Amino acid sequence: PKEMIRRFMRVATLDAPASLKVQLQSFYYRLGADILHSNHGTLLAIIPHQKSVPMFFQDGILLENRINVLSGISSLLTEGSRESLQQLVAWNQLIRRMASMDGITVLDSCGAIVGYNCFIKGSSLESKEIGKTMGGARRRAFDVLRSHLGKQLSGVIYKSQDGVVELGVLT
User: Fold this and answer.
1) Which of 21, 38, 43, 110: disulfide with 15, CB 3.0–4.6 Å?
2) DSSP 4-54
3) What is the mean pLDDT of the chain?
4) Cβ-proximal residues to 69 (8 Å cutoff; 6+ apart), any chain
């Protein structure tokens, strides 16, 4: 899964400024490793930065203001304060908790936290491919999300509760 985490991390930081990209990638690499080594299933999706949240995520908790992890990293680098470090640690824990909940956790391609506990409505799952899908609701949702890559999504990563990991990203 290391290469999958790296590929997912690259998409989650695609639109970050070059001056902070390495630090943001490090943040998301560690987070990805923690999430993929946990005992629960998860589903994370990445939308393009500064794009509106796709309608199929409306059944979830969408943040009124995205949590800008990049600004926290910038603050830590410029101020070096304990408060800046604590903020980043808190955001790391927050994303881990969001990812451990049912539903989809949504990030953007600049590393911001967009929402969590998002569910795709039943009508969204009616696709011609769904009959070929084996697995539970998280797996079926992953297949539907993959069909949106390049349109409304930049990436999606799936981990089943029993440890199966799959990645969908634009190449």
Assistant:
1) 110
2) HHHHHHHHHTTTS-HHHHHHHHHHHHHHHHHHHTSSS-EEEEEEPTTPPPP
3) 89
4) 24, 27, 88, 91, 111, 112, 113
For the whole model, what pTM was predicted?
0.89
Cα dihedral sign, 97-99-102-107? positive
Tell me if residue 163 falls in helix, strand or coil: coil
50-73 pLDDT per residue, tens: 899 999 999 999 999 999 999 999
CA angle at residue 6 from 5 to 9, to 5 degrees?
85
**Beta strand 104-108 pairing with 42-47:** parallel
pLDDT-based confidence at residue 150 (cuts at 50, 70, 90): very high
Residues 6+ apart with CB under 8 A from 96: 31, 34, 35, 38
